[in-house]
Design goal:
The structure holds two protein chains of two kinds. By secondary structure, chain A is mainly α. Helices cover 77% and strands 1% of the residues of chain A. Chain A is globular and about 50 Å long. The two termini of chain A are 22 Å apart. The relative contact order of chain A is 0.17. Chain B is globular and about 60 Å long.
Amino acid sequence: MRPRPVALGTAAVAATAIALLPFTLSGYHQALAAQVAVFFIAILGLNVLTGYTGQISIGHGAFMAIGGYTTAVLSRDHHMSLALTILVAFAICFVCGLLVGLPALRLSGVYLALATFALAVSVPQIPLQFSKYLGGSGGVQSATTLGHLRLYGTSWTTAAILFVLAWLILRGRTGRAFRAIRDSEVAATSSGVELAVYKTLAFGVSAAFAGAAGSLFVMGTNGFAQPSEFGILLSLQILVGAAIAGLGSLWGVLAGAAFVGLLPTISSDVPVIGSTHGQDVVFGLLVILVMLLLPTGVAGLLHRLRRPQART
Amino acid sequence: MVELAHRRFLRVRRPPASPVGLSIVAGCVFLVVGSLTSTIFAQQTVAGLATGAVYGSLALALVLIYRATEVINFAQGEMAMASVYVAYQLMQWGFSYWEAFFTTLVFALALGIVIQVVLIRPVQHKSVIAVVIVTVGLFILIDGIVDWIWSADIKFMPAPFGPKVYHEGGVAFARNDVGTLIVTFCSVVLLWLLFQYTKLGLAMRAAALRPAAARLVGVRVNWMLAVGWGLAAVLGAVAGLMAEPAVFVLQPTLMQPILLYAFAAAVLGGLESPAGAVVGGLAIGVFLNLVGQYVHFVTSELRPPFAFAVLLAVLLVKPTGLFGRRSVRKV
């Protein structure tokens, strides 16, 4: 994955656009755009796991929950600065990801998908049991909150840093090992790739990204971490976003994040169907339509568009 | 479906008693002895079997689709929920419970077939993940449509079996639980007969097992897959209609917790095995009820995590479920 000038150019254009965007937006729309950043990070993390090592996870909402609660609790009990809590959430979720990745070594395909699904269902129940520390169904309120512009800045800065980090991880030896595992585990092992190490590592990295996303997610909800926010729907949203993004394209991940982050809000502004249930109908229909038209996601579409040029 | 697969493997000498079979027998013995010594234990076991039968039939629906297309249908529970709403509407229009019940099953059959033909078939051969995402989209879509038509408010449906309770030697059996067990048992047996003893069933088994070969001998594979989805939807509808009286109220979230346990049941049974799905469902139903009764640490909040922790433990010992076969990987 050597950086091509075109890829660098598009990344630079995207970065500039995102940096200038908040000055044309109202506070409400800045918060919305920050939410897109949250999904961007989470989908990027899932892409590392599913796109590069071929392990499926429907449980990334669980890691977001862990990250989010880390931020809220650290801010409430220790008045830690919010930006710092992102780092802690990242680290804690990295460890959690490694711990989940170890048993996941024994599972594959649908069994892994359902095991992670179980994780997504189980983790939001934990605060209900330990309500003394984790606030029960009422949730945890962080000590400080961010304004719209600060939120936007923090979210997209984190997204940019993590994007570069993902690129650094994936471009060299580690990325090659990941892709070798995805393409054939047997072939990868016989070429000396340590399956257990790299598969677990991929889980850790992916979970860490989701943790950072969860931390920012909580900042976006006015510093409020609540079990119902991290329900199974969140995990499904990330999965849908990753499927719409397709694999291995910055624009794809952006499109996927925008789709999941913005569509429900946009469709609720449409007059006829603009109620909560109409919103679900539109979202469901569009998800199905996109998958029928673009089964390989936006990345697949871009790839097809680029192909004819490459041949000439 | 099982039969065809087994006939091929029969020549291979099988070990006389597998640890899985032994542990199931041990579990049954434990339940019988427990039920004979304690009335509360017996009551909880019967109630657990009834909820377990519901989990089992939804799990069986998942397994049917998984065997045919290697896809987990996330919308299975919501399709069942929509069917229950149709039954509710029919009863509002003056149908009796059982008229509405059977009309709904016909509706569910049509719904399953239409969904397969219109939404699943176009992506079926492109990628597995695309099909899964389509079913996720369907989940959200059906939820939205039901909210739209009937609103998310709680509805009340006439109960099929009434609140009557039988007393047998100091043990109380709710008539509803017994009815649920009988109805789900009958539907599973009917389905099994269909697969084993009819030409349609044979064609469906062939289409699921060897699509290319089946096509060569004249089986309309695509149509068989659609019928498979239809039958799965019918099973789901039975599960939904039997689940509703147990929670007393009808709302759009009716099937979501049940779908979770059905997933767990299907995985526990090995995803490929219809018998495994039913056994898995019954085991989970009974297990959760007994744990809720006797292990006080596991409160109702901790039940799903606890159930899934146990499931995970089973998977770590047997990564393809209790009845699953290990596939051999070729380079």
